[in-house]
Amino acid sequence: MHAKTSASKPRELTGRHVLFIALGAFAVILCANIAMVIAATHSFPGLVAKNSYVASQDFNRNTAAMTELGWRPEVTYADGAVIVTVTDAAGAAVRGVDLTAQIGRPSDAASDRALSLSADRDRYVAFAPLEEGVWRVALTWSDPKGQTHQASAKVWVSSSTN
Q1: What are the residues whose beta carbons fall under 8 Å from the beta carbon of 48, sequence distance 6 or more?
Q2: Residues 60 and 125 occupy one common structural domain
């Protein structure tokens, strides 16, 4: 008895097959990279300051002036309002500060907007309903000598703080 043999030839891996496999792998990688670049460039621009070199020139001077002044701003969020409290070196509330604020997401410039702060006893309040997540608040104020100071804080908003 003779066993029946298959007349079909086993598939061979040719140079053409390897070429198509390699091109397919590179096409998948290239498509993934393009998708990531598009997603990255349409969200956070990566800029905190328009010109970081110029911004860095005054950093030490501003830090020393703020330390000498002794004022410390604190930012919180409760009941749909951003609350800023400024205290002096002794821990007493500082009143009558010309304070401006910008709020936005740390990862997206599309949500950036100015806050209208109003004095309320020992604090400054801006009613601003915020979605859940992390928000960045940038503060700017002038001291009695006319020196401008800047500070920033992160505020975490959850459903329990709305």
Answers
A1: none
A2: yes
Contacts of 116 (CB under 8 A, 6+ apart): 126
Beta strand pairing call for 99-105 and 81-87: unpaired
When divided into structural domains, the chain yields a total of: 2
Q: Using CA atoms, how far apart are residues 162 and 155, in angstroms rounded to an integer?
A: 12
Distance CA 71, CA 139 (A): 13
* 77 shares a domain with 27: no
The domain in which residue 145 lies consists of 56-157
The set of residues, in sequence order, having a beta carbon less than 8 Å from that of 155 and lying 6+ positions away, is 75, 76, 77, 82, 130, 134, 135, 136, 137
Predicted pLDDT of residue 50: 77
What are the structure tokens assigned to 161, written together? 């703080």
pLDDT means per 10 residues, the chain with 162 residues, are: 65 92 97 91 70 78 79 90 90 85 85 89 90 92 79 86 56
Cα–Cα dist 91/123, whole Å: 13
Residue 9 lies in a domain: no
Q: Which of these, 34, 45, 38, 118, lies nearest to 82 by C-alpha position?
A: 118
